[in-house]
Write a structure and sequence with these properties.
320 residues, mainly alpha, 14 helices, 83% helix, 0% strand, globular
Length: 320
């Protein structure tokens, strides 16, 4: 029983840490899109930024996998069915989800995008209930409902008269569908492999699909080369990809430990962290936004179903 509790609490901690790091990733992507040469391209800049983000992430993860001495395990995983299930999840999460996410950031900003896309656990929970027969307890349902409701309120107070808001909203919904589907599909694949290996396959698949399919469709190779030649921009993309890679590592481990529904409910805290980190990056600030952000994080903890045990685990980490 104790081992099961510790296993669950690790999943909770990984989920929240992944959300915090994705908040950093989101703010940094917004900064990248405002830098030269990407700022001069409306349509293809988010696609190029996403490709370079996932490509750099693939490199970071290969280095990590090498240090963990899991390269042989990584290559042998392609003999399993789970690897191809993860590849399918990668298409939903990368080319569909991340494209929608970064395009939405371009049109409506990092804060609003994070807020809207934070609804993806609700879609994922619906899929989880249909395909995985997962059920949240009453406290978990309350926590997830509180989180989604708070993100909606935060979205209304963060609104504005941006003429591109509908386009941005559509891309954010595309992200919701992609990420919610990815979480559920990847949980099937990770039944046969380590979450770290699954993530390596995910990022590599996403980068390849962008390189071979999406960039040629939008004639984005030239902008890729121009961005690679711009040292400040590619350096920031690499740093952003590092934060994103660690975030994904935490998220995938959380899915493995506690299942996609609860993992998504915890990961949704990135919308609140984006508001916090965005303030330090010069974004608009209000007390109301911070209060709602705190409510979002509280809802994420409640989604785990055992907030008292979770806080005990946090205290344990601090003592260590």
């Amino acid at each position: 029983m104790k081992n099961n509790t510790e296993y669950s609490l690790k999943g909770d901690a990984f989920g929240l840490l992944g959300g915090m790091l994705w908040g950093i990733d989101t703010v940094l992507i917004g900064i990248v899109l405002a830098m030269s040469p990407l700022k001069n391209y409306v349509i293809i800049a988010p696609l190029v930024a996403t490709f370079l983000h996932d490509f750099c992430s693939t490199i970071w993860l290969l280095i990590y996998t090498g240090f963990q001495k899991n390269l042989k395990l990584f290559f042998s995983s392609f003999k399993t069915r789970g690897a191809y299930v993860v590849m399918l999840a990668a298409i939903f999460g990368g080319p569909l989800g991340m494209t929608g996410y970064v395009q939405a950031i371009h049109y409506i900003g990092a804060g609003n995008t994070a807020i809207i896309s934070a609804a993806y656990p609700a879609f994922g929970a619906l899929l989880g209930r249909i395909f995985l027969k997962e059920r949240l307890n009453r406290l978990g349902i309350f926590g997830l409902t509180l989180t989604v409701a708070a993100t909606i309120v935060l979205g209304t107070v963060s609104g504005g008269g941006n003429q591109n808001s509908m386009i941005g909203f559509a891309f954010a919904i595309m992200c919701v569908v992609g990420w919610g589907s990815e979480s559920v599909i990847s949980s099937f694949g990770m039944r046969e492999m380590l979450p770290d290996i699954a993530l390596q396959i995910r990022q590599m698949t996403s980068a390849i699909v962008y390189l071979v399919v999406i960039l040629p469709l939008f004639k984005g190779y030239r902008l890729v080369l121009n961005t690679l030649m711009n040292q400040p921009t590619i350096l920031l993309i690499a740093i952003t990809a590092l934060a994103g890679s660690i975030s994904y590592l935490m998220y995938y481990r959380s899915i493995k430990y506690i299942g996609p529904t609860i993992a998504m409910g915890l990961n949704i805290s990135f919308s609140a962290w984006t508001v916090v980190f965005g303030f330090f990056a010069g974004s608009d600030f209000s007390i109301l936004k911070i209060v709602i952000a705190i409510i979002i994080i509280l809802g994420c903890v409640l989604t785990a179903g055992k907030p008292q045990d979770f806080m005990e685990q946090i205290s344990k980490f601090k003592r260590e």
